Amino acid sequence: MTDSLNDFVTNREIQPQDNPVLQGNFAPVGIENSFEQLEVVGTIPEDLQGTLLRAGPNPVDPGPNHHWFLGDGMLHGIQLRNGKAMSYRNRWVRTKALEEKTGLPAAKGGSQLELFTQGSGNVNVVGHGDRVLALPEQGLPYEMDIQLNTKGLYDYEGKLKSNMTAHPKIDGRTGQMLFFGYELLEPLVRYHEASANGDLVKTIDIELPKSIMMHDFGVTETRVVFMDLPVVFNLEVLEQGFGFPFQWSDSHQSRLGIMNRSSDEDNVQWIDVDPCFVFHPLNSYDDGDKIVMDVVRYSKMMAAPGDHDYEKGTNLVRWVIHPNAGTVETTTLSNIDIEFPRVNPRFECYKHRFGYALKQGGAHGFSDLVKFDLVLGTTQTHQVGNHCAGGEPVFVESANAEAEDAGYILSVVYNGDTQLSELHIIDAQNFQSEPLAIVKLNARVPFGFHGNFISE
Ligand SMILES: [Fe+2]
Fold it and tell me: How far apart are the C-alpha atoms of 131 and 104, rounded to whole Å?
């Protein structure tokens, strides 16, 4: 299929430059595809009914200093029904920024807020309250349909007046969605709660000493945990020609901020923690007065402008936060270099035993999948294949599941031999076995960030 946006990109010939995030499977693709009735090796479980949505950056005009976190958002969707892989589609999020670069119209409707609040939709895509939202690092979400058409900016009927994180937390029992947004100007952080049916019912401004990068946060049954970590806004980085304006600061105190979910005002209790950076918690839960928060921890991050080394060197760490004592106890659970940690969504905000993640490193930048049993302290590895690189492991429960790990891991895998991508469907309880099914997408899906399975 060709449309005018495809023509625009093809004519500009997106060229890999001397930049690691424009090469290999980081390189953007130049076409929007629509394929139906995909080839499947193996058997797709009949209880997988829905669409796996993925989000990532796919810049139409990357410059030599292009940063992986920037770039026009592209969504990918793989629909599974009755044991068949019905379709694969990929679409750019039709943002105002894309309109300015390509001349093709942005989606109309939704918010009338100013341009600076518009996101790229390139970090995550979530379903909540019958809406599908493509989420940026900073900016408003774009509402999408399940076919990946952009409906427009979404601002909760005018109630969301500032940025929305790409990492909202959907309470695994109540269905409420908790999220925040961070800004370069006051208020530096805003916390929000949306009801299970998707109404924005609470907003609290949170004070911070400095504008920082706050990518994600922790939520338990009763509390939220903000991470004030030392990657701070730095105008000089922008002035040096680098697009991502945050940099490590030795002088910024690392802190965790605890607030009750029942609170209606900023009464955050801040507790110092050792310097580090965390993009992603695996999950967080209450343990009496204590909070347990398992996180993928970097000892340092973005030490220099344009530093592309942000994807290396993590530990899976458990923070046990003692609000009464004002202390944080840190224990290393695993030294495997991982990212994109996920749990069974039913256990989001509640005590989990299992976690899943993607190993970093290898010839392509990412490699195999891992499953942590945090009760037994064991780790299993699912090898995605020679010359292959996995993607974020998305857990989908099987029908009538009771056990936490009764379900499937869905991972979009890049096959370096064919230079095409495949959806691997893995039995989470037989994690080290061959996939139950491999769906051939017949296209390359560039390494992106996050996604979710939207059940039908
Ligand atoms: Fe993320």
Answer: 25
